[in-house]
Amino acid sequence: MSNEAFLIIFLILIALMTLVPLMLRRFKIPTVIALLITGMLIGKNGIDLIGHVAPVLAFLGSNAARIESHAMTLINSLGSLGLLFLMMLAGMEADFKLFKGNRKPVILLSVLTFLLPAVSGYLVYQYFKQDDFPGKLLYASLFASHSVGIVFPVIRELKLTRTFFGAAILISTVITDISSIVLLAVSVQLKKLEIAANTPAVMPKSLSLFDYIDPKIFGSWFTLFFLAVVVIYFVLVLAIVPRLGGYIIRVLGGEDGTITSFIFVVVLTVLVGEFLGINLVVGAFLAGLALSRVVQSAGEMFRKFEGIGYGFLIPFLFISIGMQTNLRIVFNSVGNLEIILLTVVGLVGSKVFSGWLAMRCSGFGNPEGLCAGMMTVPQLSATLAAAAVGKNLGMLDENFFNAIVVLSIVTTLPVPNIVRWIIEHYHLTFAGTTEKVYEFKEDQDELM
């Protein structure tokens, strides 16, 4: 593809990623949803924008097929980098100081809002595919995850960041996301082993050490063995990466090269994880978690990372996810609608009930419990990212992938307003905490 064709397609994409969210913002549609919609419209299952633009640009010296192929490679590559930055920033936003003084509600929320939705997701997938164990674990991880990017802004907007209630939800959200990411890593590796055992000829080789080991040597102990590998990886990353980050800060003193060095540390952490069979999503999140204190103590460093991620790379992730979505098949059969219905009802019901139960057992009232449950319902960034990983590996077919996209849309849009209505209707007040929680930039609220 010629430089001119590249620039024209790139400018078209940037223009769409800027204008469509601006137009939909007046309807209070989050930027992520707007980007998903944009991807659906311009993808092959929509107007096929790239397919129509490529022939027009062929006069610049490349054939249409070559231009289209390179353009899709560009979008998918930037989307992969966006996925890395998204999970890294999610890890950087975690702060376990909030656990202090909130042990009981945090523990109950973390356990119940992970376990009950995970069981629900497992059963929903099993209803349709009884023999696909890795797929059931993946769906369980999707149900168990929370949307950190939705929970944080909602709690701040409602002025709950300095309350025990808000702090409990924030830290339990982080713990639950870590647990769901571990479950995702296990499901992905089990799927790879299943493919290698059944159809080794079609198994694409990756950096993972397990791709080159006969899965039969593990027998029935693979899951426990791989969990041990994950735990060791977590411990080493959390012990070593913060020291590397601190050393970089001391040597470079916050100069421009510091950002590049930090990105190198994150990529190195991800590559080591990939070598151990741990997906990029897990490695990037853990690297961000390990670097969170170092980066946030370095003044503007965190905002620079946000600018690169939210301002440029992450939008390409959601554009690429939208372009992979085919909502036309939703109405093709009753079976497709059944998958979506059970997915939405199963997730919303298990999330609301588990959140309510956890807060009631912690001494909060019914309205507070309902608020906590509703705040765990939105499924957005991490859920879509994990679903994209599952689709790329063939773990989720098009019907289930589309169900997750629909789930993200229908659970994200109404929840902030419902929570606000419950608080205002019941005139809820919450006890305060002296802990300083988070200060987010305004643009992030719009994106996530």
A few lines on this structure:
By secondary structure, this protein is an all-alpha fold. Helices cover 73% and strands 0% of the residues.
Give your account of this protein's structure.
By secondary structure, the protein is an all-alpha fold. The protein has helices spanning 3-25, 31-42, 49-56, 64-92, 103-128, 133-144, 148-157, 164-198, 222-252, 257-275, 280-296, 301-324, 334-361, 366-375, 381-392, 398-412, 415-425, 442-447. The model is unreliable at 434-448 (pLDDT under 50). Helix content is 73%, strand content 0%. It has one domain (78-447): Na+/H+ antiporter like fold (Up-down Bundle), CATH 1.20.1530. The longest helix has 35 residues, at 164-198. The two termini are 33 Å apart. The chain is built from 18 helices and no strands. The radius of gyration is 22 Å and the shape is globular. Helix 2 (31-42) packs parallel to helix 12 (301-324) and helix 5 (103-128) runs antiparallel to helix 13.
Give the terminus-to-terminus CA distance.
33 Å
Total number of β-strand segments? Answer: 0
Question: How would a crystallographer describe the biggest sheet?
Answer: none
The proportion of residues in beta strands is under 5%
Text of the CATH class: Mainly Alpha
What class, by secondary structure content? mainly alpha
CATH topology: Na+/H+ antiporter like fold
Q: Please, what is the average pLDDT?
A: 77
Count of DSSP helices?
18
CATH architecture: Up-down Bundle
Overall 3D shape: globular
Multimeric organization:
single chain
Any low-confidence stretches, pLDDT <50, length ≥5?
434-448
Computed over alpha carbons, the radius of gyration is 22 Å
Number of domains: 1
Portion of residues in helices?
over 70%
Order of SSEs, N→C? HHHHHHHHHHHHHHHHHH
